[in-house]
Specification:
Structural class: alpha/beta
Radius of gyration: 19 Å
Shape: elongated
Helix content: 25-40%
Number of helices: 10
Distance between the termini: 20 Å
Bound molecules: 2'-O-acetyl adenosine-5-diphosphoribose
Length: 253
């Protein structure tokens, strides 16, 4: 199932970079961004809701969408892909996860070095003064079809609180982006897992890895723009492929 070259590259790797997207959380029950939206959002696509303009025009719709996603994430569990990625760190000296996901499933599975490029569902802040917002404890009880919810007001300045994610048209957090590029440039093997590889600048990372001489491995059930650049394309679900790969490379260790 796996090529000898892949097994040899992984056994000798000292530095891994694992770049992940929504496909890694799909098997935990979190819809990807390319899945059709349903319920209240059926006439929208994710890229039209994840913008500053959408929040300015329809704050109740956008806040409701993020609350629905946050409730889903709080109620779900990491899947075998998250656990296999966390396990990589016990076999390779340096293992860094770079994620576009705004959930915390890598951390809950035990990954310790996780760089978030697109922010977090759990770190809302004031849209004006930037003060962090404290969510009430527990899992919000959101109906499956979603609902409109007014964003809360900032306790300091009274302005609207906004989701703590990076929207289309906004810059990535500079420190995280610098860190992502640094670990990508230094790695021996670069994984791109469960991402459609279309959203920039994050989608530059596999190219940066390849130009630095890393062996690039993609895991995805679908073809993507990365197929031509990757040294190895593993076609299938991350939750099935990754545990099998860890077992094949480090069986008994
Ligand atoms: P996408 O929703 O664009 O792509 C998900 C990818 O995961 C697709 O290529 C699927 O084929 C693949 N996939 C689905 N199920 C999988 C599974 N079980 N195992 C492995 N792969 C699977 O998600 P991202 O590439 O993460 O940005 O999207 C990138 C960014 O675009 C997101 O962070 C978000 C989005 O709009 C912002 O909100 C700024």
């Amino acid at each position: 199932m796996f090529s000898d070259e892949l097994l040899v590259r992984l056994r000798s790797a000292r530095r891994l970079a694992v770049f992940t997207g929504a496909g890694v959380s799909q098997e935990s029950g979190i819809p990807t961004f390319r899945d059709a939206l349903t319920g209240l959002w059926q006439n929208y696509d994710a890229s039209s809701l994840a913008t500053p303009e959408a929040f300015a025009q329809q704050p109740d719709l956008v806040w409701g969408w993020y609350e629905w996603r946050r409730a889903k994430v709080l109620a779900c569990q990491p899947n075998p892909a998250h656990y296999a990625i966390a396990k990589l760190a016990s076999h390779v000296a340096h293992c860094n996860v770079i994620t576009q996901n705004v959930d915390d499933l890598h951390e809950r599975a035990g990954s310790r070095h996780v760089v978030h490029l697109h922010g977090s569902l759990h770190a809302a802040r004031c849209s004006v003064c930037g003060l962090g917002f404290e969510y009430p404890p527990g899992i919000p009880d959101e109906p499956e079809g979603g609902r409109h919810i007014s964003p809360p007001a900032c306790v300091s300045c009274g302005a609207q609180v906004r989701p703590g994610v990076v929207w289309f048209g906004e810059s990535l957090p500079q420190q995280n982006w610098d860190q992502a590029q640094a670990v990508t440039e230094q790695c021996d093997v670069f994984f791109s897992i469960g991402t459609s590889s279309v959203v920039y600048p994050a989608a530059q990372l596999p190219m940066l890895a390849a130009s630095g001489g890393a062996y690039v491995v993609q895991i995805n059930p679908q073809a993507t723009d990365l197929d031509g650049l990757a040294d190895c394309n593993l076609r299938g679900k991350a939750g099935a492929i990754l545990p099998a790969l860890v077992q094949a490379v480090w069986a008994g260790r």
